[in-house]
Amino acid sequence: MTPAGIRALDSSTRLALDRTRLAYERTMMAWVRTATSLITFGFTIHKFFQFRIEHGAVLPDRLLGPREFGGVMVCIGLFALILATVEHRRSMTSLRAEYGPVPYSIAAAIGLLIGALGVIALAAMLFQF
Q: Residue ranges of the domains in the chain?
């Protein structure tokens, strides 16, 4: 036992722990990329059609217009990011409980920033600023 009460891991276990942690990081980053794509594409659709309407293009009335479609895409991106973050946090907590301290997740921090970007994009879409 180490002074902090955490058992020392042999080298193969430590390397397996690192591989598992990095796999969790890669998975989280894949979800961050997916959420970023959904958020930015939804916002772009909204802005493109807003630009067209401002310049005289008349869009037919539809149940799901460009503003709604873009908003749905942004919401799906945010929802996916929230679910991925919850799963990532659960996985990292499980590793910490079993093997002691592991480094904090940079992917989760990036996910937080992308989530903030998504909320700002959604607010801009809803309040037209």
A: 26-127
